[in-house]
Amino acid sequence: GRFTVEGEALTAQPTLGIGSTQISPLDGMVMSYIPAGTFSMGSESGDDDEQPVHRVTLDAFWMDQTEVTNAMYAQCVADGDCIPPYNMSSSSRSSYYGEAAYADYPVIWVEWNQAAAYCSWAGRRLPTEAQWEYAARGGLVGAIYPWGNGAPSCGAWNGAQYGDCSPDDTLQVSSFTA
User: Fold this and answer.
1) Contact (Cβ atoms closer than 8 angstroms) between residue 177 and residue 159
2) Of 38, 40, 93, 122, which is least surrounded by CB within 10 A?
3) What is the pLDDT of residues 155-170, one digit of tens each?
4) Which residues, at least 6 apart from 114, have a Cβ–Cβ distance to it below 8 Å?
5) Which residues, 6 or more positions from 119, have their beta carbon under 8 angstroms from its beta carbon?
6) Which of 145, 120, 1, 2 is nearest to 61 (CA)?
7) By three-state DSSP, how is residue 118 classified?
């Protein structure tokens, strides 16, 4: 998952804006600055828990640019602040977590409490639902998906990766366009 850190100490810097980044000294995560703003959250045609569309105003915050990798998570495990994933395999790989070939792939099989423990170790926290949706929209107003209204398809152009897509497993972080 992606994690965020509050921007209180950073919002006083006048140079921060869209495109600003910082690197976490603990795990090397590149984080993007998400400016304060108001957006319409939810969907009138979505599930019941997505309705009704309502206005949400957020303070500025920082969000990880990618999922936490196996290598990043392993640092937290080595420091004793996290426990290893409860399954060391992936959908098509019998050996995944702890394998050098998959160091830059997203950590999986980590439950919420361990994700929160990782965030605490890294000096960050999990984003709220509103922060996640606001950042994922990327400024698009009224779009169904972060890239617009075109349905997801298997391919890097719109960031889709689901059961019908080859290889039906995780891919290296940053494999898709932003």
Assistant:
1) yes
2) 38
3) 665 656 666 777 888 8
4) 82, 83, 85
5) 3, 125, 126
6) 2
7) helix
Show the tokens assigned to 31.
């984080």
For residue 22, give the 3-state DSSP assignment. Answer: strand
Sequence-distant (≥ 6) Cβ neighbours of residue 132 within 8 angstroms: 2
> Identity (one letter) of the amino acid at 95?
S
Q: Which two tokens stand for residue 74?
A: 């392993």
- pTM reported for the whole predicted model: 0.82
The number of beta carbons lying within 10 Å of the beta carbon of residue 153 is 11
Element (H, E) at 21: strand 21-23
CB atoms within 10 A of CB 4: 21
Give the tens place of pLDDT for each residue, 43-88: 888 788 888 989 999 999 999 999 999 999 999 999 999 999 999 9
User: DSSP class of residue 168?
Assistant: S
